[in-house]
Write a structure and sequence with these properties.
Elements: H1 18-48, H2 55-80, H3 83-101, H4 106-134, H5 140-168, H6 172-192, H7 209-231, H8 237-250, H9 269-295, H10 299-321, H11 327-346, H12 356-383, H13 389-417, H14 422-444
Helix pairs in contact: 1-4, 1-5, 1-6, 2-4, 2-7, 2-13, 3-4, 3-6, 4-13, 5-10, 5-12, 7-8, 7-13, 9-10, 9-11, 9-12, 9-13, 9-14, 10-12, 11-12, 11-14, 13-14
Length: 457
Amino acid sequence: MTSTVEAPPVSVVSSSYRALSVGLVALVMLVAFEAMAVATAMPVVARELGGMHLYNLAFSATLAASVIATVLGGRWSDVRGPLAPIAVGIAGFVAGLLVAGFAANMEIFVAGRFLQGLGAGLVQVALYVLVARAYPAAMHPRVFSLFSAAWVVPSMVGPAIAGFVVQNFDWRWIFLGVSLIVVPAGLLLWRGTSGRDLDGGNAEPAPGLGRKLVWATLTAVAAALIQYGSALKLGGIPLLAAGLVLLAVALPKLLPAGALRAARGLPSAPVLRGLAYGGLMAAEVLIPLMLISERGLTPTGAGIVLTVGALGWSTGSWIKGRGTISHLTAMRGGAFMIAAGIALISLVLIDSVPLAVAYVAMAISGLGIGALHPTVSVLVLEMSKQGEEGQNTAAVGVGESVFTVVAVAIAGALFTATGETYLMGLAFAFVLAILAAFVAPRFAHMAKAGTLEGTAS
């Protein structure tokens, strides 16, 4: 078990945990800001560097790198402790920011984005292991609620700040500016870990790690092909098909036995998070376009609707962090709330339905994912044996990323194939959320320590 016997303090920002908690949140916020801001800056970057043909690759490269780094960082954190992968991840992330910020052409920019993905992947999985080692188990829900809150502010202000910088200064400062702040945040985190035992426990180097990295690379390539091919519409069908075939071969090698059939216990965790988050993201890709083209909202207005969802996410995590609802209620109820929000916003396609329904719908979905997402993280740590938190968290991260890419690609393909019918894409997202609700009890079934390498059925 990953819990400790010490009684938890009143708050995660009490004197003994303040520097650590602030450092954690700062790093998560900076990674989140970069992820949110780059989407706003990319059109200008691609035009200025003459690389519109590599536009989608700039996103795919980051995704592919993060999948590889997640697998590596998970086991590295288990064996050597989380501090080394965090330090290397920060260095890689900063190097990627600098390469992208000083890029003279699009090829160099894409290389920088790849480095950013490697760094971010290492940092994010190692931070979960750090939470397991540094905080008592009773504090984990509140720490993960802080993680969720750390994504809200970048979601709200990241695109606006990026737009302001691009319009009034230079897009390069979006990357160079963040690089100036990441290192101080890392130093604050390092200060917060002083005097804590964060070693790898009894974990031994996994003999199959090299093979896993090969499968992770193939999975990353498959996900990138799916993401890139789906953006090309009809011309990308061969890439999309190749990606799906490769994914069918590679992904099962990275997930626990029984994961794809949602076996009871820890093996179902990657599928649960992948279905829930993937369903929501598949809907959110279509929602702004639907609100702009069908109901006449401005891009700013459509963005505010998504911001309401981000605020709902933070609120849902805060509620769960207070311990007022059970794990199963948070996961199953959260999935049903995501589905309810997607169904409700579909009604906005009817002209007589007030636009206010869209805000309510996104608030409901946000509350749902806010309750579900950190609960899965908490339970994965609770169910993991000491020294296996990293590999288990990595499996969940890989599953979530890949499921989301596939969900967004299929929703977009349905939208295009049906003559830009929003209802088809939203219906697919709704089905994914409903499936997550049925998987939730299977994940909550196991209550004792285990491992994602198990074959619980």
